[in-house]
């Protein structure tokens, strides 16, 4: 039995700067939340930890709470605050 799923994570602002790409394809364990995915990215790029508390999460073009569980094929968006106008 396969206990992992694949999701697409769209990166913006500081997240995109850290990774150098506009999106990631991640294989994650089933039952993970958007917050756990964010934590994984911060683990790989600790400089992003400053944005954790102020990042908004989206799944499939809908804003969601951090404890939202993702499904196979979901598109996750991490939206840190953007400065400027």
Describe the 3D structure.
Belongs to the MoaD family. This is Molybdopterin synthase sulfur carrier subunit. It comes from Leptolyngbya boryana NIES-2135. This protein is of the alpha+beta class. It is 21% helix and 32% strand. It has a five-stranded mixed β-sheet with strand order 2-1-5-3-4. A hairpin with a 2-residue loop joins strand 3 (56-59) and strand 4. The radius of gyration is 12 Å and the shape is globular.
Please outline the major beta sheet: 5 strands, mixed
Task: Please give the alpha-carbon distance between the first and last residues.
Answer: 49 Å
Classify the secondary structure makeup into a structural class.
alpha+beta
Principal-axis shape: globular
Helix content: 10-25%
Number of helices: 2
Q: Roughly how many Å is the radius of gyration?
A: 12 Å
Mean pLDDT across all residues, rounded?
93
Strand element count: 5
Succession of helices and strands? EHEHEEE
Describe the strand arrangement of the main beta sheet, using strand numbers.
2-1-5-3-4
Note poorly predicted spans.
none
Strand content: 25-35%
């Amino acid at each position: 039995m396969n206990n992992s799923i694949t999701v697409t994570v769209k990166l913006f602002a500081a997240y995109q700067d850290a990774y150098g790409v506009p999106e990631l394809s991640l294989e994650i364990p089933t039952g993970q939340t958007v917050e756990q995915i964010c934590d994984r990215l911060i683990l790989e790029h600790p400089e992003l930890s400053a944005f954790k508390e102020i990042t908004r999460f989206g799944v499939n073009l809908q804003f969601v709470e951090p404890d939202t569980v993702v499904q196979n094929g979901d598109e996750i968006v991490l939206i840190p605050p953007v400065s400027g106008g």
